[in-house]
Design a protein that fits this description.
The protein has 386 residues and is α/β, with parallel strands linked by helices. Helix content is 44%, strand content 18%. Helix 2 runs parallel beside helix 4. The two termini are 24 Å apart. The protein binds 5'-O-[(R)-(carboxyoxy)(hydroxy)phosphoryl]adenosine and zinc ion.
Amino acid sequence: MKILAIETSCDETAAAIVEATGDLSNPKFKVLSKKVHSQIEEHKKFGGVYPSLAKREHAKNIVPVVSECIKILNSKSEILNFKFEKEIKEILQREPDLFENFKEFIENTPKPNVDMLAVTSGPGLEPALWVGINFAKALSLAWQIPLMPINHMEGHLSSVLINSPKIDFPALGVLISGGHTELVEINNWNEYKILGKTKDDAIGESYDKVARLLGFPYPGGPQISELAQKFRQKSQVSSLKSDIKFPRPMINSPDLDFSFSGLKTAVLYKTQELESQVSSLTSDLKEQIAFEFEEAVVDVLNTKIGKALNTNDFKTIITAGGVIANQYIRENISQIANDYGIKALFPEIEDSTDNAQMIAIAAYLNSFKTDSKINPQIVANGGLTY
Ligand code: KG4
Ligand code: ZN
């Protein structure tokens, strides 16, 4: 089965075509095509993702992204006449420019040979989600291909399947991204239970906020981890010691929930205190703060993962989300898996940030559960859960 998926939940406009075979116990995937347009440059000046700008950018880029993505299929099939004009105009009524682009696209593009369409319906920024949903609905109608709504977090968890490894269940899902921090019990694909989640900031969000405090542009997670790593390496070869200490919020709570906003506030107070002494932070001080912040995050994360592993006979840890680009966090999670004698799986770094191949894969897994059909009832749900 070939699936064309669309993802617009945050600041990436993405499309992918994935060929899927096999059953739920042994699914196999081949990514035939993938395309992402990132809006990061546009959002940088706001220090974070600005929803109405995200919506505008998605509406501008979705046709070129999808068009580029399906080129690979080199479709010999026919160009369909543009039908359902009234219905499609209604679907795209909030994006009139998109309607014109969409019409032109359908009138010039052979219908690709795909069996199913999939689109992220949540969680995410609702104005951004709506663009992908409405576009996918219009596409589904114009090309008469069934459309399936997909949970973005299920997509992230599914991203480990891109290389089609065999998964031993139950698995512990560790979702760490700019918008989410969740521990999930996965008894099989399509069977999820949230064990714990953040009560305020997500891990990636806390990295980005600390980065901002230290003067780095959005998204500053990678800079913080780079500075932390510098300090870590220096302290390993010298007697360099840090005298800064940050709290480990909720580390001793019996539940599996997280809280990172207090940690960010502790970093804020520390930077203010230091700035009152030295006017501007030296790069040595920034490295030290980044290091201590990362140690606090990793301490909490390791502790909660350990606690979660004790709740069940987990055979695998599946970690997903943009924060897995962090090498130190990956090493720590691999070490925990090793200590427990279980497998740690991570998607490739390029598949860990928001993308559409993970949405196509989750759609295939979902196709074993639900009837896929043209579904005009799909709505954006910013807080969608499993
Ligand atoms: O999954 P993702 O692309 O978007 C969301 O769905 O949120 O995750 C992006 C997040 C950003 O907060 C970014 O700063 C963070 O992942 N990130 C990192 C690193 N690379 C990306 N955080 C810490 N260390 C990194 N190396
Ligand atoms: Zn995401």
